[in-house]
């Protein structure tokens, strides 16, 4: 169990996967709830939801209710970063009968429209997690987690690990994944302005 490589014999299909937008952060660098930030007239959380929804059987939000009509997954323990959200999502998904969870960041609205398919393709039968990587940078929030990872992930959390990347390393996650600039991260208000200009140039 120490390697996190639990034997799984079946491939994952979209109907096996619950999509979860991780939106429980405090947005300290942005200065306010960045999921609510407007980008070309739409909130970031709306853009992420619209892009994620076709890729999985269902979609939920880990954080709070943003009025999108999606289920909200409460934190199963005191929130200490995205790893808390992943654990809560896996517990919720297992109870609901899903075999896996695909996690998305609420502040990166340009991820690939086939991200989950690509993460599933790079997830070998002996691994429980695959993550995205672009231009040599790892994006641990964009990941696909088999729900059989829950026990080992909880053990890792209970030993004091809070870093999502460190937890993936300890569980034996597979990577890299999609390449390109589709994981542009909106952490500050100048990032928001930059993304707005990029969208306008793209439209013209």
Topology:
Elements lengths: L16 E6 L15 E2 L2 E2 H9 L5 E5 L9 E2 L8 H15 L3 E6 L9 H7 L7 E6 L2 E10 L3 H9 L5 H8 L17 H15 L1
Parallel strand pairs: 1-4, 1-6, 4-5
Antiparallel strand pairs: 2-3, 6-8, 7-8
Helix pairs in contact: 2-4
Tell me what the structure shows.
By secondary structure, this protein is α/β, with parallel strands linked by helices. The protein has a single domain, classed as Spore Coat Polysaccharide Biosynthesis Protein SpsA, Chain A (Alpha-Beta Complex), CATH 3.90.550.10. The chain is 31% helix and 19% strand. A 6-stranded mixed β-sheet has the order 5-4-1-6-8-7, with helices on both faces. A hairpin with a 2-residue loop joins strand 7 (129-134) and strand 8.
- Total of DSSP H or I helical runs spanning 4+ residues: 6
How many strands, which pairing sense, and closed or not: the largest β-sheet? 6 strands, mixed
The total count of strands amounts to 8
What fold name goes in the CATH topology slot? Spore Coat Polysaccharide Biosynthesis Protein SpsA, Chain A
Name of the level-1 CATH class: Alpha Beta
Strand percentage: 15-25%
Low-confidence stretches: 1-9, 177-181
Largest sheet, spatial ordering of strands: 5-4-1-6-8-7
SSE order in H/E notation? EEEHEEHEHEEHHH
Overall radius of gyration:
16 Å
Helix content: 25-40%
Question: Whole-number average pLDDT?
Answer: 83
CATH superfamily: Spore Coat Polysaccharide Biosynthesis Protein SpsA, Chain A
């Amino acid at each position: 169990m120490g390697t996190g490589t639990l034997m799984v014999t079946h491939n994952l299909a979209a109907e096996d996967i619950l999509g979860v937008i991780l939106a429980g952060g405090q947005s300290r660098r942005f200065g306010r709830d960045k999921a609510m930030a407007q980008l070309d007239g739409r909130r970031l959380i709306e853009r992420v939801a619209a892009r994620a929804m076709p890729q999985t059987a269902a979609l939920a939000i880990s954080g709070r209710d943003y009025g999108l009509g999606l289920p909200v997954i409460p934190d199963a323990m005191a929130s200490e970063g995205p790893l808390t959200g992943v654990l809560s999502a896996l517990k919720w998904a297992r109870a609901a009968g899903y075999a896996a969870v695909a996690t998305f960041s609420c502040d990166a609205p340009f991820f690939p429209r086939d991200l989950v398919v690509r993460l599933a393709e790079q997830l070998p039968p002996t691994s429980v997690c695959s993550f995205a990587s672009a231009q040599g940078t790892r994006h641990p929030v964009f990941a696909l987690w088999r729900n059989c990872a829950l026990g080992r992930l909880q053990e890792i959390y209970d030993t004091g690990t809070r870093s999502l990347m460190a937890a993936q390393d300890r569980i034996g996650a597979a990577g890299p994944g999609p390449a390109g600039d589709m994981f542009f991260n909106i952490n500050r208000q100048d990032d928001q302005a930059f993304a707005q200009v990029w969208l306008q140039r793209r439209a013209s």
